[in-house]
Amino acid sequence: MAFSTVSKKSGKTYFLHSRVTVLKGGREQRIYFFAGEAKEGAIDKLPDGYMVSENERTGLPILKKK
Q: Are 10 and 60 in contact (CB under 8 A)?
């Protein structure tokens, strides 16, 4: 089951995803993002050292370092 959080503003459920992307210099970097549906790349738990916050204006969840 993918990690999910519910927006306090809209009540919509968002699922946490992870992907490795290649930057312009050729370096690979892991990115985390929330999506409205659990698709390929959905992860089961929060990464160590991170917490979920919510953008007050839009209600979208944000992953922040503790």
A: no
**What does the DSSP 8-state code read for residue 66?**
-
Question: Computed from CA positions of residues 32, 45, 41, 59, in that sequence, does the dihedral angle turn out positive or negative?
Answer: negative
pLDDT tens readout for residues 7-54: 999 999 999 999 999 999 999 999 999 999 999 999 999 999 999 999
List Cβ neighbours of 39 (8 Å cut-off, separation of 6 or more).
15, 17
| CA distance linking residue 35 with residue 49, whole number of Å | 21
Residue type at position 11 = G
Output the pTM of the full model: 0.89
